[in-house]
TrEMBL record:
One of its GO terms (molecular function) is kinase activity. Residues 5-236 form the Carbohydrate kinase FGGY N-terminal domain. The keyword ATP-binding applies. Residues 370-398 are annotated as: Disordered. It holds the Pfam family FGGY_N. The keyword ATP-binding applies. This is ATP:glycerol 3-phosphotransferase. Keywords: ATP-binding, Kinase, Nucleotide-binding, Transferase. InterPro entries: ATPase_NBD (IPR043129), Carb_kinase_FGGY (IPR000577), Carb_kinase_FGGY_CS (IPR018483), FGGY_C (IPR018485), FGGY_N (IPR018484). It comes from Paractinoplanes bogorensis. Residues 248-448 form the Carbohydrate kinase FGGY C-terminal domain. Belongs to the FGGY kinase family. Residues 376-398 have a biased composition (Low complexity).
Amino acid sequence: MGDLVLAIDQGTSSTKCLLVDAAGAVVATGSAAVPIRYPRPGWVEQDAGEILDSVLAAASECLAGVDPGRVRSIGLSTQRESAVVWDKRTGEPAGPVLGWQDQRAQPICDALRDKGEASRVREISGLPLDPMFSAAKLRWLLDRTPGAAVGTVDAWLLFALTGRHRIESGNASRTQLLDVRAGAWSPELLDLFGIPASALPAITPSSGSLGVVGARGGVLDGLPITAVLGDSHAALYAHGTLASRGVKVTYGTGSSVMRLGATDDTGVCLTVAWNDCLAAEGNIRSSGATVAWLASVTGVTAARIAELAAESSSDGVVLVPAFGGLAAPYWDDNAVGLISGLTLGSGPGQLARAAVESIAHQVTDVIEAMTPKDTSPAADSSRAADSSSSGRSPRSGGFSRAADCLLADGGAAGNDTLMQIQADLTGLPVYRARTTNLSALGVAFLAGGFTPPIEYDEFHPQPGDFTAQRSAWRAAIARSRERGASI
């Protein structure tokens, strides 16, 4: 048996491959870009064939010069809610990949909401009725390609590489077609969205014998796939035992806030982390994108915005980046972006600081929604009885306690100012992973059956009262939503 695991991290803009040993060391890498197209406002498309080509190109680069006998298995981490359609007979794509940001299926969601089905959809799937999730996009695709096979990106790659029509349980939970507590496709949701069961892949665990790559996989031919995870789930898994204690935040263009355990709070989603472990997740639409936007309109670089934020105070300026509405914990598509608290003394520094603070405020909103409302010792003991001793919360488990740390990763987490603000607003120590590519590492750890520790930079809450900042933020959020409702 080989001593290396090949981790394939298929993301929205690129595919990265890492060859990882049991100590967590990366011995080789490869990458390939994936084109994104925007044919109309609100439409975000990719090509399934180009996604597959990027996987094979990145893998070829990573494995160049490596003895094939050293590679024992493949772990696959993927972008999540994007919807794919293909001909099961020929194996060829039958339409565009609708990206997770794609909004063209909004009318399908609106029609279900008008029928009063939104609460039932959330009750079964654990997700708010929103075109970000796959179900409405899959319906849109099937309306144009009846009889085709459908799935998410992981399902497409498993089919293309192994010939098996399968979907991993965590990715399945992001389709809005899964009964999240039962772990099976919901006949009621399939009926509501008009998705035939025959078009969907079979649900498979996150780890195990998930298929062997065939000749179509080129350099991957003959390798077994032993783990599949959604990218955010894989990043959580990489934190090992800390995952049971903390809340994980991946800071990117948007942000994913996730912690193990179930929740009844309707402001966050209920999802499958891996296998039969439930997790709560809040998705934030604009994090790094807010800094990029401000850099663009002020004609400077994102790095300069970060410098200005580190040097300045917001001085009462609050920026709500509801460019396309607000996601968790508000789920208000009508909310509008706004800047409040401006004075004649406000300048680029105050705006830069407010932009960075908006990221930390949004994450804090989600963490507050995930915090058990009763944290007394008696309640904590009762909840703990529902959790596994390993810290991997089972399907029936809830939060055993309030999180005691924040685990940070992603590109925007490299901003020290943001990390300190985040610690101050949440009152939690922030542990920022020193290692990059946590999604790839996490799926490598699961595929290989090893969990080496990772190293962190630490940011601890500073003394001070941040109540006024949080109050100003909540007031600005209220105005954003009121203004949106009046338009």
